[in-house]
Amino acid sequence: MIVVSNRIPTGESVSGGLVVALHDTLGCAGGIWIGAHPEPGIGEETLDELGLTPYRRLAFRLTEEEQKNYYLGYANSVLWPLCHRRGDLVEMRPEYGAAYQAVNARVARMVGKIARHDDLIWVHDYHFLPLAKEMRALGLANRIGFFLHVPFPALGDLSVLSQPERFADDLAHYNLIGLQTRSDVARCLEMFRADPRAEFMPDGGIKFLDRITAVRSFPIGIDTAGFAEDAAQEAVNPFGRGDPGRFLIGVDRLDYSKGLPNRFRAFARYLENRPAGSRPCLVQIAPPTRQQVRAYQDITRELEEIAGHVNGTFAELDWTPIRYIHRSVPRVELARLYRKASVGLVTSFADGMNLVAKEYVAAQDPKNPGVLLLSRFAGAAEDMTDALQINPYDVEDVATAISTALDMPLEERQRRHASCLDVVGRTDVTIWSTAFLRALMTCIPSMTFPGFE
Ligand code: ADP
Ligand code: F6P
């Protein structure tokens, strides 16, 4: 198996659902993982072997211009806001699209050099939508699957792109398109239905010009048992001597899609009305990400202002309401923190799945579990119906839910947790990858590619 994604683990503690899930998958299955090297290059067409892991890691180098125009530009200033319903943040520049195409073509050539004819190729995320098309142009007839970790955009939103018709065409070069949720599948099918080049076949496959593809949902998950084990370890208290007592936890990359300002506002609203003597703390771990993009600089500044304001308003000499930490935390430590937290907060305005929701549930002590507050706009909400679902746009709703969660009787906490844990167990990362790869191996091969076996 050859896996291709932009992000690849490079040593330090990793954040981001894709890297965490693929690291767990390849750790069990083995294979080759190709991704971007953290250091820039000069546009070379060679792959560097990174250090030893249970799987091989091969890295291509992006030039500084490509990092700017392909990664920060087209991927994160066009496709990311588009998929997260933030058309207002899309920034379109001709050099972005050109670099995106050029990087996809170059990576295709590098994959082409190492792929054997029977390798399965599994491409991940919006950085590489046209990769299969580029590989097909080189003559690769392998089974190629694609998994989109972020929400599938609504048909209307695709019009934001300069050439919206390329989105469906690029995707149709994959044998299998995997999406997080049933709602994502519905949006993807809506796109194909609206496209005169697509034809629905009786078995559910889609014939697109001379190609056949399939679309299915594969809800991504975590290493549930491993995470629960880490969480239950009686290690040192992660807070040392600064134990906050009762606390709520949020763990997110510092991204505008995560609804962090409203989370802080809702916590402040809760503090205004809290019962006398109650002094819970919100521990927010948010490592900065994509900081060269303006929208990320803005959200970083906005959050600092809100946290400063909330702490200035409510703090006492021996109590800081919001503890706001900007760095990555080792996974074992993270698991321990989740387990100690009375409430886990997920307030995304849009989110492919949200693995943090699943990690929080897996880390709980089933005898005395905390409560998950889960945005109804996170993919995880589709199946985790017994989480306390909230509307992150409605600050009052979130504040009320915080109060409900902190006061929730043990029996109700246990019932909700058992139901959520059942979902987390049924959508484990191994089940996710096995289901995807099995579907890729059994789906209709690319028989309609002229000249290919
Ligand atoms: P996204 O893919 O948008 O970042 P997810 O919630 O699906 O969102 O995945 C985030 C992953 O990154 C989770 O596994 C989470 O534990 C991890 N993560 C996020 N922030 C940190 C952090 N500060 N330290 C360590 N891991 C983090
Ligand atoms: O899981 C969604 C995702 O966009 C991944 O594609 C990506 O690796 C991760 O979030 C973190 O983003 P980045 O790689 O830009 O730091």
TrEMBL record:
- What name is this protein filed under? Trehalose-6-phosphate synthase
Family the UniProt entry places it in: Belongs to the glycosyltransferase 20 family.
Q: Give the species.
A: Paracoccus broussonetiae
Looking up InterPro entries in the UniProt record yields: Glyco_trans_20
* CDD domains to which the protein is assigned, alphabetical: GT20_TPS (cd03788)
Q: Which domain of life is it from?
A: Bacteria
Q: Show the Gene3D superfamilies listed in the entry.
A: Glycogen Phosphorylase B
